Amino acid sequence: MQNMIKYLLVASSLLLVTACGSEEVAELPKPVDLTLDATGHFCNMTILDHPGPKAHAFVKGGEAPFWFTSARDAIAFSMLPESAKSVSVIYVTDMATVADWSDTSKGQWINAREAWYVIESSKRGGMGAAEAVPFGNQYAAQKFVENFGGEVVIYADVPRSYVLDANQTSSLEGQIN
């Protein structure tokens, strides 16, 4: 009987240690609807006033999203040292669900890390800058390349210089399509 009690105590202790050491996987926040109140994190402008794909990001422990006038800005946000480790999820407009580049308000949201991106295309994002145009599937991204040029990449392969280089915006002034 004593051996049984010792066994149960040891097993219980191991179970507690194992449970305390494991990390709980938190459920990601769901995407939220784009409204007139959504303003860009970097520019403080109304999101709906800008063409092209939009994005919003949630940080760990935060309830309200950070909004971005372009998918590229949200990717840049995830690369900045002060926010890189705190971003829990980014949602971007699936441009395969959008009929009009100038009105993406009805587009569906997809997890940015699961999207295919077209970079270096002739299309410009919300602030007139080069855009990382997100798609929910590779085929739609490739069709976009056929029409507007560029290259298809996954989230992890979007070049840091492409989203953080100020020269991506300065040479494109006035070229919003």
Features:
single chain, 177 residues, Alpha-Beta Plaits, 7 strands, 5 helices, 4-stranded antiparallel beta sheet, alpha+beta, 3-stranded antiparallel beta sheet, globular
What does this entry show, briefly?
The protein has 177 residues and is α+β, with helices and mostly antiparallel strands.
How would you characterize this protein structure?
The protein has five helices and seven strands. By secondary structure, the chain is of the alpha+beta class. The N terminus and C terminus are likely disordered.
Spatial strand arrangement across the major sheet: 2-1-3-4
The shape, in one word, is globular
Low-confidence stretches: 3-23, 169-177
Name the helix and strand elements from N-terminus to C-terminus, one letter apiece.
HEEHEEEEHEHH
Give me the Rg, rounded: 21 Å
CATH architecture: 2-Layer Sandwich
How would the blueprint of this fold be written?
Elements: H1 2-21, E1 55-59, E2 66-68, H2 71-79, E3 87-93, E4 109-111, E5 116-119, E6 133-135, H3 138-148, E7 151-154, H4 160-164, H5 167-170
Antiparallel strand pairs: 1-2, 1-3, 3-4, 5-6, 5-7
